[in-house]
Design brief:
- Keywords: DNA recombination.
- By secondary structure, this protein is mainly alpha-helical.
- The chain has helices at about 20-30, 35-50, 55-60, 95-105, 135-150, 160-170, 175-185, 190-200, 205-215, and strands at about 65-70, 70-75, 85-90.
- The protein contains nine helices and three strands.
- It has a three-stranded antiparallel β-sheet.
- The longest helix has 16 residues, at about 35-50.
- It starts with 20 loop residues before the first helix and ends with a helix.
Length: about 220
């Protein structure tokens, strides 16, 4: 018997688990926004689904990272392997509104945002109240909200929100380049994985073969 089994390489081109727009709405609609935790979770998921942030980027974000570049409101992003917030994502009006709605529950008004060095998302638990929301906590929040909306499958993880943003962008007609910039992919090859998946899912060859044999 061998002492160990060599594991295979992870296939980066394996199918990505994502949600349709209507399913995203189902997930968001079941969140009770009458509590601070509810407003936080709603704002967090809206940001992840809409802007395609990684969990580490959401965890690292500071309130003051909500800022203006030119005529556009953006969120500065500290990406993987970066020492500071050297990138950004545009913030649609609705995303900005839900973020500021959440921040007001922490006593942070819009005028306070530019100088506020607090984490954008913080814990509400008694043991760590006010501390940075960790990537593990963000993943747990996502999973809990998915399950409450009826999406109880191991394939759906916090990273599914990022896949969702990428695939919805392409399905809505945005170019591969636009989507690559939104997701901050270093290589367009990574974004092309989404294009390949969309094309394959839209391929009716197997259905046509089935009809030819059985209908």
């Amino acid at each position: 018997m061998p002492k160990y089994v060599k594991s295979g390489k992870v296939n980066r081109k394996s199918p990505k688990s994502y949600f349709e727009a209507a399913q995203v709405k189902e997930i968001l609609d079941q969140i009770d926004q009458t509590t601070q935790a509810g407003k936080r979770d709603y704002a967090l998921l809206v940001l992840l689904f809409t802007c395609g942030l990684r969990t580490i980027e959401a965890s690292r974000a500071k309130v003051k990272d909500i800022t203006i570049l030119g005529a556009s409101r953006v969120l500065l992003v500290q990406g993987k392997g970066k020492a500071d917030a050297s990138d950004y994502v545009p913030l649609p009006d609705h995303v900005y509104t839900v973020l500021t709605d959440y921040l007001t529950t922490r006593g942070i008004d819009a005028k306070d945002i530019p100088a506020c060095t607090e984490p954008l998302f913080t814990s509400t638990s008694n043991r760590s109240k006010g501390q940075t929301l960790s990537t593990r906590s963000i993943s747990k929040i996502c999973k809990t909200r998915f399950i409450k909306a009826g999406f109880n499958d191991p394939k759906w993880t916090a990273h599914s929100t990022r896949h969702t943003a990428g695939i919805l962008s392409l399905e809505l007609g945005h170019s591969q380049r636009d989507t690559q910039l939104m997701l901050r992919h270093a290589s367009g090859d990574t974004t092309n994985i989404y294009l390949h998946q969309i094309g394959k899912l839209g391929n009716s060859a197997t259905a046509d073969i089935s009809k030819a044999i059985f209908d």
